[in-house]
Amino acid sequence: VTANGARRGRAPTGTGRGNWFTRPRSTGEGGSAVTILAYVTIVIVALICIAPFYYIVLTAFKDSRVLFDYPPKWFPDLPLFLGNFEHLLRNTQFPRWVFNTLFVALVVTALKVLFDSMAGYAFAKLEFPGRNLLFIVIISTLMIPFAATLIPLYLMVTDFGLVNTYWALILPPLANPIGIFLMRGFIERTPRDLENAARLDGVSEWGIYWRIVLPLVRPGLVVLAVLTFLVQYTSFVWPLVAAGTDEMKVITTGLATQRAISEVNYAVYSAGAVMGMIPIVIFFVVLQRYFIAGSLAGALKQ
Amino acid sequence: MDVVMPRTHNGAPPARRGRERLGVSERRRLERRYRWRRYAIALGFLFPSLLFFVIFLLVPCVQVVIQTFQTGGILDDLRFTGLTNWQKLPSNPLVIRSLLNSALYAVMAVPTVILIGMGLGLLLVYVQRGSTALRGLLYFPTLAPIVVASLIWLFMVHPDFGAFNLSIRLLGGQPQNWLGTTTLALPTLAALEVWRGIGFWALFFLATFVALPQELYAAAQLDGANAWQRFRNLTLPLIRGPLLFALVIATIFSLQVFDSVFVLTDGSPAGATQTLVWYIYKALFQFDNVGLGASLSVLLLAIILALTLVQMRVLRSRPGT
Q: Rounded CA gap, B282 and A231, in Å?
């Protein structure tokens, strides 16, 4: 069956699930043996990659008293022990952190997709003096690590009196220029004829952007949204310094500082890690197609 | 002059009669107004993005450079002290230590993650059936926030109930105190990054491999080149660009390691995991020393900029790859 999968790629057009790269090796050199070896290795590595997640789920359902038992149990006891989750939900601000995380991530994502697609439209379709220079300035800041601007940014937000507010969590991430760069690329590839026809019909630039270009680049918008949401959801350093009070923490900072404060209840950390992964898992399962496409910038499309 | 041109062009009258009534200067004025109107529209589209870009990225970049010449902290005002911060930097043992640790961390994590990622990418080329699920599993650790991944790692490396030591004990080996031993702590953190990163790089290299020109491989096969020769003499030169890109990006990423240090070790044991960004954080929030933190930030910026320039230089020096 596997060999069949590889052989289908032999069609001259390279259609189907196979691809050309497997072809030279599947002819004459025992390609099926290589394929089997590849499968075995990939499956083993995939299991190793997932194993820590299994272990943490297993631990999350253990009472901290049996955590240190040896030999350990590799399967959870039934009925499942839910004390760790209860502790997390009752005795910490975890629900609040989840709300903060989702609220901030959604607002940042919505604003970024809107603003960056607008800027991308200006760079791709409109003419103004200094357009190329401005774009070079923007892409040359792509490499600047966030840690490098952490200190001035913190002092600035303190001066504005925004520490421990949603403003502090939402506004600075909007500066990330990656979205402008991505959206310019997506919008540049849309056909000029359509928008020119609209221009002749007297449609305003905003109308062209909103009703013609945006629907055309919808996959690009989804890629940017997925990317932004994930970056926000996983961000740590900025929420750590910008919002330190317990009510203003996000999931990452809440879990991390809980760990820093007390060494007491390990089992609760595992419950926190499991809960922290749930939104990501849902998100990944629903949007996997867009996600991998996004992170590899369409390179997988042959 | 060009303004009048259309009217005489082909000797035909202009399409719209209205234009005939405009004088040259009037026409120019209207054109200029139209042009400015278009610039204004472009600015309107750019404004929201640029506003935040300037306030929260460009301005801090300038400020951080200025702050390297200042002294003060969160509570007291900043005062200029000239080059003092820079002069103190080389004699500060913590600076040297954190630079070395960050470099060591990158040296351990980057080649490992890229090599494994490339190997997996190569194997993934052969995996057709069930590839979506397998790619998803490989990719999954990348999705975990580093903080969550670090908490998970805690359950891998804990001396008593960690999965590593349990496995070692089951196999009859000697359990280790992974994060408590000076020689093991940094490699343990690097291993966390390898675990998180291989899936991403596997997919990156898979995408690179399937995009290679297939005629060359057919030709090489006809010439009797074996799999290793094809990889060594064909694939490697062809992926030089993406490979260099991967190395530089992974290095830049590794040099900024912070989250896992914060969650797992906080610099211990005996400073073995004090890294550059960890020290930047501590400079502000523990030592309340803006000047020190700012100089470290600029140092980090300079290192990353240098890496980026080297990458651009190398890529430009040999075009066609």
A: 24
